[in-house]
């Protein structure tokens, strides 16, 4: 995070660590059209959103569950599906992070409270898309 980012505090070092590869494609939901209360959009809300989604949808293989289960180089906990604004930071820093394919679409953890839809990065902007559609997942961790 840098000055001007939401949640920025010059006295506290914090930020996002992104997986260096996509996982997927996965659907956002597991066949359930239920409200998840995962409506956080701001930086810092992705982890809670991910937990809300998993609590609401339960067991299954879908975007939030695979992001939370992600493991790499000994880091097997703390991963989550980024919120809308957290994904915006990934896009802003896409060259430094690398390995994105923006011809594909990516899920965020933000639920627009429109049953059957979820917020995704599509091209160069966000859109509320069919949550049953398989898309890419880019897990993140925060520090």
3D architecture notes:
By secondary structure, this protein is of the alpha+beta class. Helix 1 packs across helix 2. It is globular, with a radius of gyration of 14 Å. The mean pLDDT is 91.
Task: Write the element-wise H/E pattern from the N-terminal end onward.
Answer: EEHHHHEEEEE
Q: If strands are numbered along the chain, what order do they take across the biggest sheet?
A: 3-4-5
* Helical amount: 10-25%
List low-pLDDT spans: none
Helix and strand content put the structural class at alpha+beta
Shape: globular
Number of domains: 1
Q: Strand percentage, roughly? A: 15-25%
Number of helices: 4
Q: Mean pLDDT score, rounded?
A: 91
Give the N-to-C terminal Cα separation: 11 Å
Biggest sheet character: 3 strands, antiparallel
How big is the Rg? 14 Å
Topology of helices and strands:
Layout: E1 16-18, E2 23-26, H1 46-57, H2 63-69, H3 84-92, H4 94-97, E3 105-107, E4 117-122, E5 125-130, E6 135-137, E7 140-142
Helix pairs in contact: 1-2
Summarize the structure.
With about 140 residues, the protein is of the alpha+beta class. The chain has one domain. It is built from four helices and seven strands, in the order ββααααβββββ.
Could you name the key traits of this structure?
single chain, 143 residues, 3-stranded antiparallel sheet, two-stranded antiparallel sheet, 4 helices, 7 strands, globular
């Amino acid at each position: 995070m840098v000055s001007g980012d939401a949640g920025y505090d010059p006295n506290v070092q914090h930020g996002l660590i992104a997986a260096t590869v996509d996982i997927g494609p996965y659907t956002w939901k597991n066949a359930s059209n239920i409200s998840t209360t995962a409506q956080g959009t701001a930086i810092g809300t992705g982890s809670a959103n991910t937990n809300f989604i998993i609590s609401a949808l339960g067991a299954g293989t879908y975007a939030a569950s695979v992001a939370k289960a992600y493991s790499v180089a000994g880091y097997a906990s703390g991963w989550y599906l980024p919120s809308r604004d957290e994904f915006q930071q990934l896009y802003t820093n896409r060259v430094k992070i690398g390995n994105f394919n923006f011809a594909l679409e990516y899920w965020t953890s933000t639920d627009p409270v429109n049953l059957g839809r979820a917020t995704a990065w599509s091209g160069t902007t966000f859109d509320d898309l069919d949550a049953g559609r398989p898309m890419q997942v880019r897990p993140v961790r925060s520090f």
